[in-house]
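Support reply, case 0932

Customer input (verbatim):
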Amino acid sequence: MRAVQLIAYGNPVEGLKYVDLPEPEAPGPNQVLIGVEFSPLNQSDLLLARGIYATRPALPTVIGNEGVGRVLALGPGVENVRVGDRVLAPLSSFTWRERMVVSANGLFALPPGADPRQLAMLSINPPTAALLLSEYVNLKPGEWVVQNSANSGVGRWVIAFAKTRGLKNRKHRPAAGARGELKAIGGDVVVVDSPDVSKEIKTAVGQAELRLALDGVSGPGDRRARRDPVATRHARLVCSYELGSDVDQPLEVIFKPLTVRGFWLGHPESAAKSAPAVAQAAEIIASGRVHIPVAATYALSSIRDAVTHAQRGGKILLEIAGSSK
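Our regenerated output:
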């Protein structure tokens, strides 16, 4: 079967190789054989390839943190899924290969009519968004949550989950062309970074207390948002979930009543709470209420082109089914 292996840490363009590997063995008790269809190329995959992620597997190794595929065979005792069901691969199960044997624990059949490309992106961003909204501040319906990078995958899921929980959304620094789209999926206030952004926010939220801010990118716009007197007037928590975020500007933390926390889905306590959010997100995808833009889809054999594109920006998918044809 065809796959992509990491053969050297460092530059992902050089370290990732398209290879032919032996077929996996038949599934054992409580295992299933999955034929992988699509897998995203996430920033966490690139960090792992560079050797700076939280995990550093022995080389050579297949990588790939999430993906979707069809159940091809069942091992003894599997009752929660059937052959032909479309399922999510377990998180961090190294999905950049045509077929893989995984534990059946936690697997469930995905909505049959949903776009598999959209389903392939469910294991990381939706639970990240859901837990960011619940694990740090006990927000009540009607309260505000603010975030930057609103048109990212996590940002769009924050909007969706906040809407289902009755929270108000203030979205900062989306792409200008995405304002209408983000409003349509539930963003209450969507502002593009500018010198007048503070006035726009103040007009929108009035005297409301802003207790939770979600920081997903770095740059001057984010610092402006954190210096905004509306956003930092009350003691609140800033949760950073993206590597490179510069939320830890020392003077801002010293002179403002801020608490700064980091988030990583890979912590066992986070992973254990992910399943309900993933299931809910699958139904939202099937309903068409959320659609994550995909910049391009590449075959496994074009892994170097895919990585080069991902480094420029945009959501990239690998189409894995039929890679050996």
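We compared this against your earlier run and they match. Two observations from our side: Residues 68 and 155 are 21 Å apart (CA to CA). The radius of gyration is 20 Å. Please reopen the case if you see a mismatch on your end.
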